[in-house]
Design a protein that fits this description.
By secondary structure, the protein is mainly α. Helix content is 47%, strand content 2%. The relative contact order is 0.06.
Length: 171
């Protein structure tokens, strides 16, 4: 009664490529494909989760490193301020006087041709008033009349400038 017509040519070739529902053949071939797709999707989701975790961990490390950099920059700036305050001219003069140094006299300069420009003078003699005092702890100070310090005066030394010729022959 219902007889299928025979297919010829192109239709026959297509019918062989796409078999009809005749048993469990197509159902059995579909199961591994579905499992493969599910595994790929699951693996992709797990991979995205691992990637997201790694990126967030890197973000936390970056944040910590930025905080450390800020702290170290602040410390560097504080140290630079300390260096600037110690190297200021008034601080250098104060520290030099504490160490007993005195300002130098007038300098003389040598010109490239060998002539001397200016008259050099010696540094001023330091007076006893300018000598820095060394403070002792109160325990070491005794209150006896024999322990009163005596002051001695130093003879005044006047610097004698040495005459230098203004023109010196060259080499």
């Amino acid at each position: 009664m219902s007889r299928k017509p025979e297919l010829r040519g192109r239709a026959a070739r297509l019918a062989r490529l796409f078999p009809g529902p005749s048993g469990t053949g197509p159902q059995a071939a579909r199961t591994p494909f579905v499992l493969l797709v599910v595994l790929l999707l699951g693996g992709g989701l797990i991979g995205l989760l691992v990637l997201n975790s790694a990126l967030s961990e890197g973000s936390f490390k970056l944040d910590d490193l930025q905080k450390d950099t800020k702290n170290l920059t602040d410390e560097e700036q504080a140290l630079q301020r300390d260096i600037d305050s110690y190297s200021a001219p008034d601080a250098l003069v104060r520290r030099a006087r504490e160490l007993g140094m005195v300002p130098g006299g007038d300098p003389a300069f040598l010109n490239p041709d060998g002539t001397v420009k200016g008259v050099p003078s010696a540094a001023a003699q330091q007076s006893a008033v300018q000598v820095p005092l060394v403070l002792r702890p109160p325990e070491t100070i005794t209150h006896s009349p024999a322990a009163t310090p005596t002051t001695t005066t130093l003879p005044a030394v006047t610097p004698t400038p040495t005459p230098t010729p203004t023109t010196t022959p060259g080499r």
